[in-house]
Target: Phytochromobilin:ferredoxin oxidoreductase, chloroplastic
Amino acid sequence: MESCPYNISSIISMSTLKKPPLQYRTKITNKYLSNFPSRRCCSFTCMLRPLMAENSAAAFSYKRFIHFALEETIKYTQLSTSPLQENFNCLAAMDGKAELQMLSFESPKIRLLRSLYVEGSDGMQVLDFAIFPKQEFDLPIFCANFFTTASMNIIVLDLNPLQNVISQRDYKEKYYKHLIPLGHNYSELLPWGGKITTESLKFFSPIVIWTKFSPSEHKHHALYSAFKDYLKSWLELMDKASGETDVPRIMSNLELQHRYLTWRAEKDPGHQVLRRLVGETFTKEVIRGFLFNGVDDLGSKTFTDYFPEYKCDDGTINQKRSMIGKSFESRPWDQRGEFIGNVLR
Model:
């Protein structure tokens, strides 16, 4: 584990980017960075303070998750602010009732750690938290996608594999074998949430938590516990990981991550929520420039290069969620983490 004090004395200055910051709307304030002089962050504690202050005000808030994630991560590695932070920080929704709050960091093994948090009216909250490893590592991608309203929670929590764990058994054994009991325990507390397409399943691991539930203190506690345990598991994998030196393998990691980003940037169901909040133009910028940063510069292949089955006769992308047509209403892995989707009906 890398040595990292709780107070990081300074976080790198944010580099000036060509595109103007996403601060065009009224009522946009940079809550996380407003305490910092000029464009330099004074300490990591300052960045966490707004999270801690607002956490106590609400019965349930995903800001608690972000606070934990940042505190836990700096136990393992030295985080620096990403250059993305200057352009992507806060963006007001069109109705003036919600705000997108964004944080982004990097470290020696992390290409991008980023968080998007939205708190709207009537109990609506969104958390999209992810950690992408650098290309020298074939680590899974930490993924937490949570959508909450006053009546429903829609949850995906996983260590998304770079490789297909259904067909690549060695990758599954390397990263998931010891985590199967953890995933099984939480699958009982947070049961399978219903139909999921075969195409999407390729980007999930045997320990994925895909669930829906009505808000309750018990369920929220279970979700927070799962988030902490999954994040700790990912950080431990990162801590033990050695960087690849073989160029072909590095390039393979890069292409696999680009393939993942390309799929998510095109087919992620959360896009609809963003469009309602900030409109089509800003949604595209946030998706391609922030949430799935790298989709435009980590590789040159297009969506239909990776997924030709979605290509229409006129060259456009078919907007259907599934081209295969098969979906899984129940969990397609057994208690040992073995895929049983081929026998499910």
